[in-house]
């Protein structure tokens, strides 16, 4: 299978499937001597995982990661202090599938003859034939995005050390839009939201805060703990810390389900999604990703343009459009509206607007990079749909399916955030290298 590789200087290769033993992210190009733990990687994975709230799939995958390669197993010399730090070799993160039971496999077997409209199940069967990984949809399942979150978190950590912050929020869901806020306010909001999710996630508290998995443990010891967790999923979920919606707002200042800085709008989004779900349908929405601190000039010309690279987020399942800055709205503007006037203030360039979304000519301008993704409604719905038998090509009807996501917008924003981090770090490494080379040959 081709198409499972991203990047040039920072490279991510993914493998696995929804109902295989798990998924794998192999990340190359990460610099050495950075402390990295499974707990912090899971802090981002839990934002995407299913079964976390009323708007996500009922599948109960914990998405607990195992770092298999790329970290020092001990100090390189006594007292060096670089144990559990990256060592520059490929970093491998495994994400085992723990909630895969025959009852769910049988559901796929019973419906795999009849492709789901809106899903890749027909096209993938044509491409790969009867051996297509159709149980759980394989790499065409949303589960593969866990690998992007895992690899992208590491990239995001490197970017932050370089003064670049990447964050994402939900700006619209089920036709309801939130009120825009300043980027700095949104960044602070998302930090509080992520802290709330860690504090209230039962697996984060049981496995990491509870000390069942620690960095000192060997891989096989950690794997043994995950084998125990597989048998305790429901029990651990039942021990989840409880906090009312009102208490969450009071303590964290965030919505208890959706990462949308407009809390009133977030609740309206939730209510409307629940109404759509009760009718057997699903909802789509809009996600916005912002990057602050990106140096001017970052990017490459022609086919390596920064906005073109970010446009590759169409590779995220269910994303049907990606726009930068004003995006599709430019069709209704005139040049004086789309241009971003600039001036010098105390020796620094200041822009009066950001219709370009921080990118012109494929290069960063130094302004905030702003990218939006349109996410379609979940194709799996609780309504009969016209389809075919993919073996006989007879017309038939696909029955209603109940195990499904009311919307996947609430699970895609961390994917978009971390995908953006991968693209920016890839370009940052090229940018630093090019600038340093230019200095050395000048004059």
Structure characterization notes:
- The protein has 443 residues and is an alpha+beta fold.
- It has one domain: 4-Layer Sandwich (Chorismate synthase, AroC fold).
- The chain contains twelve helices and 16 strands.
- The strands form five sheets. It has a five-stranded antiparallel sheet with strand order 1-2-3-5-4. Strands 7-6-8-14-9 form a five-stranded antiparallel sheet.
- A hairpin with a 2-residue loop joins strand 12 and strand 13.
- The longest helix is centred in the C-terminal third of the chain and has 33 residues.
- The chain is globular and about 70 Å long.
Number of helical elements:
12
The pLDDT mean sits at: 93
| SSE pattern, N- to C-terminal | EEEHEEHHHEEHHHHHEHEHEEEEEEEH
Overall spatial form: globular
Strand content is: 15-25%
Named at the architecture level, the CATH assignment is 4-Layer Sandwich
Return Rg in Å. Answer: 22 Å
Which structural class is indicated by helix and strand composition?
A: alpha+beta
Tell me how many strands there are: 16
CATH topology: Chorismate synthase, AroC fold
Which terms would index this structure?
about 450 residues; alpha+beta; Chorismate synthase, AroC fold; five-stranded antiparallel sheet; 12 helices
């Amino acid at each position: 299978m081709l198409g499972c590789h991203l990047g040039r200087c920072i490279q991510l290769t993914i493998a696995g499937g929804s109902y295989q033993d798990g998924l794998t992210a192999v990340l190359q190009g990460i610099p050495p001597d950075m402390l990295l733990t499974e707990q912090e990687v899971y802090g981002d994975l839990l934002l995407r995982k299913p079964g976390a709230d009323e708007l996500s799939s009922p599948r109960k995958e914990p998405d607990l990661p195992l770092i298999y390669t790329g970290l020092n197993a001990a100090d390189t010399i006594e007292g060096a202090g670089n144990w559990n730090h990256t060592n520059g070799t490929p970093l491998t993160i495994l994400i085992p599938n723990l909630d895969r039971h025959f009852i769910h496999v049988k559901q796929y077997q019973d419906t795999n003859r009849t492709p789901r409209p809106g899903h890749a199940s027909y096209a993938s069967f044509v491409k790969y034939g009867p051996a297509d990984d159709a149980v759980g949809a394989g790499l065409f399942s949303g589960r593969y995005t866990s690998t992007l979150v895992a690899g992208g978190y590491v990239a995001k950590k490197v970017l932050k050390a370089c003064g670049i912050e990447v964050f994402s929020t939900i700006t619209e869901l089920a036709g309801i839009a939130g009120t825009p806020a300043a980027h700095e306010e949104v960044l602070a909001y998302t930090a509080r939201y992520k802290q709330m999710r860690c504090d209230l996630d039962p697996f984060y508290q049981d496995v990491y805060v509870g000390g069942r998995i620690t960095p000192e443990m060997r891989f096989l010891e950690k794997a043994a703990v995950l084998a125990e967790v597989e048998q305790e999923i429901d029990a651990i979920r039942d021990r989840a810390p409880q906090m009312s919606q009102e208490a969450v707002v009071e303590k964290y200042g965030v919505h208890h389900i959706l990462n949308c800085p407009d809390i009133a709008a977030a609740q309206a989004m939730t209510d409307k999604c629940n109404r759509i779900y009760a009718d057997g349908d699903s909802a789509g929405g809009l996600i916005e990703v912002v990057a602050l601190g990106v140096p001017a000039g970052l990017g490459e010309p022609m086919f390596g343009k920064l906005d073109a690279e970010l446009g590759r987020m169409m590779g995220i399942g269910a994303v049907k459009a990606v726009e930068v800055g004003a995006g599709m709205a430019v069709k209704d503007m005139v040049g004086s509206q789309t241009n971003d006037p600039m001036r010098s203030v105390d020796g620094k360039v200041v822009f009066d607007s950001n219709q370009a979304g921080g990118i012109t000519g494929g290069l960063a301008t130094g302004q905030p990079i702003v990218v939006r993704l349109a996410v379609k409604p979940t194709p799996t719905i609780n309504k009969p749909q016209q389809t075919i038998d993919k073996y006989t090509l007879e017309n038939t009807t696909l029955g209603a399916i109940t195990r499904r996501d009311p919307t996947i917008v609430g699970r895609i924003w961390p994917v978009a955030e971390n995908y953006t981090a991968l693209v920016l770090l890839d370009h940052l490494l090229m940018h630093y290298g090019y600038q340093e080379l230019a200095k050395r040959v000048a004059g």
